[in-house]
Structures are given as C-alpha cells and as structure tokens.
Amino acid sequence: MRSNRGKKSMSNENGINSRIGAITSHITASSSSSSSSSMASEKEAALAAVPSDSPTIFDKIINKEIPSKIVYEDEQVLAFRDISPQAPTHILIIPKVKDGLTGLSKAEEGHCEILGHLLYTAKLVAKQEGLEDGFRVVINDGPLGCQSVYHIHLHLLGGRQMNWPPG
After folding, report:
1. Catalytic residue among 26, 151, 153, 155
2. Less Cβ around it within 10 Å: N or C end of the chain?
C-alpha cells in the first residue's frame, strides 16, 4: 500500500507525461493536417499545459537550440513561422526576455513597452509578408484561451479570409 505522498507523486508523474505527450504531438503535427484536427491538438496541448514561469520551447528557439524559420529579429523580439500553421501565413512573435510575462493576464505596467513593441513588430512582419489586404493578431491566454506555451506570444495570421466569430 502506498502512502498518499506516493500516490500524489505518481499522479504528478502521469500528469507531466500526458502534458509532454500532448505538447509533443502539437509540436510534431504535420502542417498538412486538416485545420480541425490541428485545432483539436492545440486545444489538447493547451488543456495539458501547466501555467509556469519555467523555460519553454520558445526559450530553446531564442537560444537557437531548436531550429526555426525566423522571419524577423531585433534586440527585443523574435518572429518565426508556426510549425502547425492555421493560415497561409502564420507567424509567432515572442519577446526574447520573458520577464514574468507568461501570458497577457500576467502583464503589469512595466510590460507596456514590450507589449507595444510586439504589436508594432506584427505590423512590420505583416508588411514584410505582403499582407496588405489584412491580417489577424491573436494572443491566447490561459487554458480556456487555448494557450499551450506559457511565454507570451502573438500569432500573426493572414493570406486568407478570416472568419468571425473566431473561436
């Protein structure tokens, strides 16, 4: 018979393993998969993710430990193509320094400058990508907002007609 402590540890390990599996399936999802199945895996990854200030896959991309298709970089932000695009153009824009900004709901007054820079970068990248006819910027926040990586990031989507309502 295990103690409650052992059950809690085993439960925690199972939870971590299921989150890793969900996130891995999201990361390795084929860009040719259907939109609805990739959205389902995104939802699963978001529900499995644990809000944390721990290093994320984005930190590995910033440090060039994981390859990515970078489309824009300056001293504050990095923009790269999403590996599971939901539109012909789907770019993620992230701050290079997280500074506790795991999601928009964690923003404080001191984050105003980087938040503005992220939005301005979205405008620059949209122009660079030829999205003159329009684009969408999305920030997912928390599990119900379908946030799967707890490092604030903007999704820049374009190249097709967007629908409303979005979610």
Report:
1. 153
2. N
